Prior knowledge:
- By secondary structure, this protein is an alpha+beta fold.
- The protein is built from 13 helices and 20 strands.
- It has an 8-stranded mixed β-sheet, with helices on both faces.
- Strand 15 and strand 16 form a beta hairpin.
- Helix 5 packs antiparallel against helix 8 (288-299).
- The longest helix is centred in the middle third of the chain and has 27 residues, at 235-261.
- It starts with a strand and ends in a 5-residue tail after the last helix.
- InterPro entries: ATPase_AAA_core, P-loop_NTPase.
- This is AAA family ATPase.
- Residues 24-318 form the ATPase AAA-type core domain.
- It comes from Sulfidibacter corallicola.
- One of its GO terms (molecular function) is ATP hydrolysis activity.
Amino acid sequence: MIQHLDLVNVGPAPSMNLEFGKRLNLFTGDNGLGKSFLLDIAWWSLTRKWPAEINNKLTAGKKAVPAGSGEATIRFSLGNGTASEAYESMYSRKEQAWLGRPGRPANSALVLYAMSDGSFAIWDPARNYWQTRNGVDVQDRRPAYVFHPGEVWDGLLAADGTWLCNGLVRDWAGWLKEKGAPFEYLKEVLEALSPSKQETLTPGQLTRISLDDVRDMPTISMPYQQDVAVIHASAGMRRVMALAYFLVWAWQEHRQASKQLQEPETNRVIFLIDEIESHLHPRWQRTIVPALMTVMNRLATEAEIQLLTATHSPLIMASVEPFFDNEKDAWFDLDFAGGQVSLKHREFQKHGEAGSWLTSEAFDLKSGRSLAYESLIEDASALLQEEAPDLENIKKVNSALVQALSPKDEFLFNWRYICRRKGWLE
């Protein structure tokens, strides 16, 4: 598992230092402060390849470069439960590459990376590796499997025209016809990742979507008694179906490869997910992280699981409260202050509800209200501080507050109580 990451002169801050939790790691912060960047760096540390280096169709996952003119370094450490191995890489401007110790990545975990744009990357210790001959890296097999969004659904082709992965559409259809273990796993994972028992993602019958598309198309049985082709499902459903598919595909392929090599299966799985709440309804956001942790443990029953995810969602933060453990989980928050980006490993504290998370250090909002209502309440609060406010202003603000806020709103209740006690309102 990835244990430690130390960056100097690379990324939005002069330096960043992270001590990862063994199980769950959360990244919060405003847009542009480096959440996706840190996930890219974590992937590179585990695999030694940038996603876009392997698949140039990607718009995300590009190689990191120094932020300034000085020396740039990436240091990290990986652990296998009993031992830890440190690694250091320096950027060579002449070679336009990160240089370091040659050889196979020390990571022994199965790594999955779900990027925010729908791309996926997978590194399998049984199928992706390097060998070293005379001190030179020789890439005997693919360094990783990297899919741009279209390839997730339609499959991944090698340069020689052979299929590296059939893609979600063909594999799902094939698994359904075979009615073997992969399809049972897929059904189980889809059910676990569903937002509720009333809205379960249940595979329907195969269909055809046109006269010209001869593929057997998987469907999802909708609550309104229709089977909808997976490619016509909502963006949120497609996101979760892709997560489910790659969890099953990656684990099944790893098991097959380990069997052929007559080697033991890995006992470690690392899942990186950028914007885990992407396209998901709030009801789904409340369940996705606990569900993923459950699913990963269920697929790999004997494996250690490490999840790294970036989020903008207060519902995601609220959803992890029941099981977050500061001994094995970590929360990293990126802030912008004084003209600089800083990364803080924050102590996780419970806020009870999503609205309270909005005003926490994770999101730094003054309130969960609209900006217009927030400004109105600030004006009203300022009036309450005056010794003898203009009563016409009090009436105008009161009228605006009554129109804007719910009758049950706490501020409105307190405002009217104070104004009446001071005789400003009848």
